[in-house]
Amino acid sequence: MSLQKQKAILALADGKVFHGYSLGAPVESSGEVVFNTSLTGYQEIISDPSYCNQMIAFTYPHIGNVGTNEDDQESRGVFCSAVIMREYNDSWSNYRGRESLDSYLKRYNVPGIFGLDTRALVAHIRDQGAQMAVISAEDGIQADTLVDKAKALPTMEGLDLASEVSVSEGYDWSTGTWKLSGNCHGRQSSDESMRPLVVVIDCGVKFNILRLLYDTGFRVKVVPANTSAAQIKALSPDALFLSNGPGDPAAVTTVIATVRELLGQYPLFGICLGHQILGLALDAPTKKLKFGHHGGNHPVRYNKTGKVEITSQNHGFATDEAHVPAGLEVSHVNLNDGTIEGFEAPAVNAFSVQYHPEAAPGPHDAEYLFKKFRSLLN
């Protein structure tokens, strides 16, 4: 069935306007426009909570080809503000597909726009930087009105969005990564009560992080971002994990304070926002990137071996390489722009990476980090 074409407008805060057609929920939405360079995995990208308050512009020109399904979901919902694409294919085809992308977005009340020149949009963001924008498919809406709305929006700096995407109640996780042989997510047959317990502070955690922690041999318990250090201690964990998430890391003050209080008491691993929070807890400040790193093809060098990993990334902030305190050893560096992609803090038995070793789908170059985390308990 072909999609009914309803005109839509994307208006950026600097006055740049793009015209296209509405997709998903026909609602007005606002957020920061960023572009993602991945060639596959649009559902995993859209369902990543790290995109809260952001509009995802896909550089790959055809989106929707394989539909959507529950197995590829990376969180309990969709937290991005909107999706932007060149061409949308409503006639999806995949043996795992259950629903069109259009229907999926409607179910989560998320709008989209397609049929615009995404190359021009991406080039504009690359040159001018990520910026706030508004999408609307409202009849008779004027582009100037949307530009004014975009100009009035607060930027991502200073926003604690982790509290918006975190769960309100803790839960246990006991499924592994998806297995082709069984066409399902795996389960371990061993006695899980004998596994070491890792407590995951949920700032917007992706499900595949939990799956890989489980596959690596952990008993996994997820807790809300506002869980106190005393409450975490009461769980008697063997290790602590800091998850990915959205927004300005410096604004997530509650989690930073909790981590600072727990440092050195448990082996600790952080990914993305978790990496930045660990750094902030150790007095390493963060900075806003011009247009962020979003995609599945970023080269990162592991300094200890010189090996280059192809990584998946999704962040708009980074640890400031000009102000790394003593005690933090930079372990990974982005070869595109030299930004910090990982560090180790041996004195407190902690390490972290800015990129996503759990990316699904994505490169597997960095999955060794989960085994490294497990080895800290031996």
Protein architecture, described:
- The chain has 378 residues and is α/β, with parallel strands linked by helices.
- The protein has 2 domains: 7-151, Carbamoyl-phosphate synthase small subunit, N-terminal domain (Glucose Oxidase, domain 1, 3-Layer(bba) Sandwich), CATH 3.50.30.20; 162-375, Class I glutamine amidotransferase (GATase) domain (Rossmann fold, 3-Layer(aba) Sandwich), CATH 3.40.50.880.
- It is built from 10 helices and 21 strands.
- The strands form 4 sheets. The protein has a 10-stranded mixed sheet, with helices on both faces. A 7-stranded mixed β-barrel has the order 1-2-8-6-4-3-9. A two-stranded parallel ribbon has the order 5-7.
* Number of continuous helical runs: 10
Distance between the termini: 56 Å
For the largest beta-sheet, the strand count, sense and barrel status come to: 10 strands, mixed
Q: Could you give the count of β-strands?
A: 21
- General shape: globular
List the helices and strands and how they pair.
Elements (H helix, E strand, L loop, with lengths): L6 E6 L4 E8 L4 E8 L5 H5 L7 E5 L3 E2 L18 E4 L1 E2 L12 H7 L3 E4 L3 H11 L2 E6 L6 H9 L10 H4 L5 E3 L4 E2 L4 E2 L11 E6 L4 H9 L3 E6 L4 H6 L4 E4 L10 H10 L5 E4 L1 H9 L4 E17 L5 E12 L9 E6 L5 E6 L4 E4 L14 H8 L3
Parallel strand pairs: 3-4, 4-6, 5-7, 6-8, 13-14, 13-15, 15-16, 16-21
Antiparallel strand pairs: 1-2, 1-9, 2-8, 3-9, 10-14, 11-12, 17-18, 17-19, 19-20, 20-21
Helix pairs in contact: 8-9
Question: Brief overview, please?
Answer:
It contains 10 helices and 21 strands. It is an alpha/beta fold and 378 residues long. The protein has 2 domains: 7-151, Carbamoyl-phosphate synthase small subunit, N-terminal domain (Glucose Oxidase, domain 1, 3-Layer(bba) Sandwich), CATH 3.50.30; 162-375, Rossmann fold.
